[in-house]
Amino acid sequence: MTELTSRPRILSGMRPTGKLHLGNLVGALQNWVKLQDDYESFHFVADWHMLTTDYADTANLHANTWEMVADWLAAGLDPEKATFFIQSLLPEHAELHLLFSMVTPLGWLERVPTYKEQLDNIKDRDLHTYGFLGYPVLQAADILMYKAQYVPVGEDQVAHVELTREIARRFNSFYGRVFPEPQALLTPTPKLPGTDGRKMSKSYDNAIFLGDAPDVVSSKLATMITDPARKRRTDPGNPDVCPVFDLHKVFSSSETIDRVNRECRTAEIGCLDCKKLLAQHLNESLAPIQERRKPYEQNPQRVWDILEAGTAKARQVAQATMAEVRAAVKLK
Fold first, then answer.
1. What is the set of domains in the chain, with CATH numbers?
2. What is the pLDDT of residues 237-286, one digit of tens each?
3. Which of 142, 50, 42 is nearest to 92 (CA)?
4. Does the pLDDT value for residue 95 go beyond 60?
5. Phi (first) and psi of residue 21, to 5 degrees
6. Greatest CA span in the chain, whole angstroms?
7. 95 pairs with which residues across the strands?
8. Distance between CA 280 and CA 269 in Å, rounded?
9. Confidence band (pLDDT; 50, 70, 90) for 5?
10. What torsion do the CA atoms of 299, 293, 11, 21 make, to the nearest 10 degrees?
């Protein structure tokens, strides 16, 4: 692992849900890979965050952690450039979360947009828990523990970074300036539909995974919905409302994108051939990712070794921060 540097620091994490899909790739991983050369990058397995919604089923947590981090590495994240660690192995996060919870007004948490959104949308489990309401405070502890200057997020997550800034500001007002106020580092998040046209999500069973074999990718794309108004092969289509074209815009060559955009509108190309073109480009994009994953599949311990080394490095930073926090709060 590399030593601490003078580069600006970023922090981001993912909940360990297992193998990652194309939405994870374009929504986060590709950006992380680009940022790791210019920023001191910390990326963590957010297993405590996983418990805020999936507390009743932890049987696959260990296996899912391995699968997710293996996909990080396969996507191009380099443990010599970035630090990977497991949140739950650092009790400092829990301590800082506790201290932040003492100063965070209840109203701040109740107004978080994703709180009510998930309460409305997730009906198969009870989310009326203290942990779920307070997860943005834990998120603030994760970020501020490392005094990250930036947090790479999409626009839908900016509210969480702003809440972190407010918590830092309030804590500093009571105990002196301990924490910087991090900035959201807005990253491009292209629209990426699943095979049913909704946002790609494992819970919707509409995802194409980074490890899917070429025939599996082709089979999934064959079932993907297209322009609903195009009933027959001879009907002109509208790529602007077609989920398949949304994937073309991310994974296909400019020549193919131009061709599909033109020939779909004139019915020169049918949906089946359009999907075959997409499968070709998508499989070409996934091939190097799958190749980079093979060494970790052949020697699974390598993933755990990387996480162990990264967690040890993160622990040094976390312990130093908490020593400063305890002194500020007069807990020692």
1. 9-191+300-329 (3.40.50.620), 211-291 (1.10.240.10)
2. 999 999 999 999 999 999 999 999 999 999 999 999 999 999 999 999 99
3. 142
4. yes
5. -120, 180
6. 77
7. none
8. 16
9. low
10. -130
